[in-house]
């Protein structure tokens, strides 16, 4: 039987879901699923049982998201720091992840799992990838930009999360999606993850809706600013080129436009070539990893 699809929303939940759907809805939600061990302690069950119920809660949450039309979810399942926990806990979490995620993957395609992940590791890796691109002659140092770094992150195929939810009352990000959440609605909720309910999710979406126009404005301003900065850099490069050629930098507007157009077309070509090479490099790394662990 399907794990995510089993069980529908109650009549009352459906009614409220329809009301909330009349407002702006998030397309992508990220969760820091925290509080499993405190839950186990509170309910006087084994720690592993707390983690197991945490994984079950994920399936339930994905069903609510599906019902609300939220088609992308990213979860922080295990951080690099979590390897410092006891061997038995780490082994138990690995077993659960193997069982539960393979079951989730069979039926659901909109879940991104961050496992053995930290954001700073992801960002420094993206920087290393760009340095590799320059070293290989695929990129020019001037191609390096925030927008290129964004494309080198593991999340490059997803829009940035609209909401980041952390449960269990902790008010920190613990190195999760630091780059991607600069314009997300951050929601910290006191509930322990295994006790998360539809109404907690509902409340988080309401918070997002109440802040939607401010968030949207901040995103738009950021995008505009990035475009403006790139154009300014390109203008300066063209001026330099023209001066080097002994031409008047501000003289011929048509010539300047043609140069600007060429400059950005060539950059786009290099960036696309680099991103293709990067994808191949990553696929090759994954294939080698698969062979090594087989
Ligand atoms: C989150 O719950 C799950 C993982 C980090 C793997 P915790 O295990 O951190 O539980 P608490 O926060 O100690 O209660
Ligand atoms: C963050 O939870 C990581 C996950 C939920 C996987 P932790 O409980 O490990 O984080 P800290 O140590 O409290 O910051
Ligand atoms: Mg915790």
Automatic annotation (TrEMBL):
One of its GO terms (biological process) is polyprenol biosynthetic process. It is found in: Endoplasmic reticulum membrane. GO terms for cellular component: dehydrodolichyl diphosphate synthase complex; endoplasmic reticulum membrane. It holds the Pfam family Prenyltransf. It is a peripheral membrane protein. Signal peptide: none annotated. InterPro entries: UPP_synth-like, UPP_synth-like_CS, UPP_synth-like_sf. Keywords: Endoplasmic reticulum, Lipid metabolism, Magnesium, Membrane, Metal-binding, Transferase. It catalyses: n isopentenyl diphosphate + (2E,6E)-farnesyl diphosphate = a di-trans,poly-cis-polyprenyl diphosphate + n diphosphate. Its EC number is 2.5.1.87. The active dehydrodolichyl diphosphate synthase complex is a heterotetramer composed of a dimer of heterodimer of DHDDS and NUS1. Interacts with NPC2. PANTHER family: DEHYDRODOLICHYL DIPHOSPHATE SYNTHASE COMPLEX SUBUNIT DHDDS, DEHYDRODOLICHYL DIPHOSPHATE SYNTHASE FAMILY MEMBER. With NUS1, forms the dehydrodolichyl diphosphate synthase (DDS) complex, an essential component of the dolichol monophosphate (Dol-P) biosynthetic machinery. Both subunits contribute to enzymatic activity, i.e. condensation of multiple copies of isopentenyl pyrophosphate (IPP) to farnesyl pyrophosphate (FPP) to produce dehydrodolichyl diphosphate (Dedol-PP), a precursor of dolichol phosphate which is utilized as a sugar carrier in protein glycosylation in the endoplasmic reticulum (ER). Synthesizes long-chain polyprenols, mostly of C95 and C100 chain length. Belongs to the UPP synthase family. This is ditrans,polycis-polyprenyl diphosphate synthase [(2E,6E)-farnesyldiphosphate specific]. It comes from Aotus nancymaae (Ma's night monkey). The lineage of its organism: Eukaryota, Metazoa, Chordata, Craniata, Vertebrata.
């Amino acid at each position: 039987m399907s794990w995510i699809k089993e069980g529908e929303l109650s009549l009352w939940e459906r009614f409220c879901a329809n009301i909330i759907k009349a407002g702006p809805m998030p397309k992508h939600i990220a969760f820091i699923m925290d509080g499993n061990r405190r839950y186990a302690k509170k309910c006087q069950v084994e720690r592993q049982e707390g983690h197991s119920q945490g994984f079950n809660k994920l399936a339930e949450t994905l069903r609510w998201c599906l019902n609300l039309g939220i088609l992308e979810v990213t979860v922080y399942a295990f951080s690099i720091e979590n390897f410092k926990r006891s061997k038995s806990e780490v082994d138990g979490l690995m077993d659960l992840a193997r069982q539960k995620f393979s079951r989730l993957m069979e039926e659901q395609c909109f879940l991104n799992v961050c496992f053995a992940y930290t954001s700073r590791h992801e960002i420094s890796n993206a920087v290393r990838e760009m340095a590799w691109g320059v070293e290989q002659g695929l990129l020019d140092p001037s191609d390096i930009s925030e927008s290129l770094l964004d494309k080198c992150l593991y999340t490059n195929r997803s829009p940035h999360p609209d909401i980041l939810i952390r449960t269990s009352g902790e008010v920190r990000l613990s190195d999760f999606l630091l780059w991607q959440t600069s314009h997300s609605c951050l929601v910290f909720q006191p509930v322990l993850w295994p006790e998360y309910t539809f109404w907690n999710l509902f409340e988080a979406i309401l918070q997002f809706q109440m802040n939607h126009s401010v968030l949207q404005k901040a995103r738009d301003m950021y995008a505009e600013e990035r475009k403006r900065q790139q154009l300014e850099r390109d203008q300066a490069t063209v001026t330099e080129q023209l001066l080097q050629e002994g031409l008047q930098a501000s003289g011929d507007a048509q010539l300047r436009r043609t140069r600007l157009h060429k400059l950005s077309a060539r950059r786009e070509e290099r960036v696309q070539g680099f991103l293709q090479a990067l994808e191949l490099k990553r696929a090759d790394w994954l294939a080698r990893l698969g062979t090594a662990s087989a």
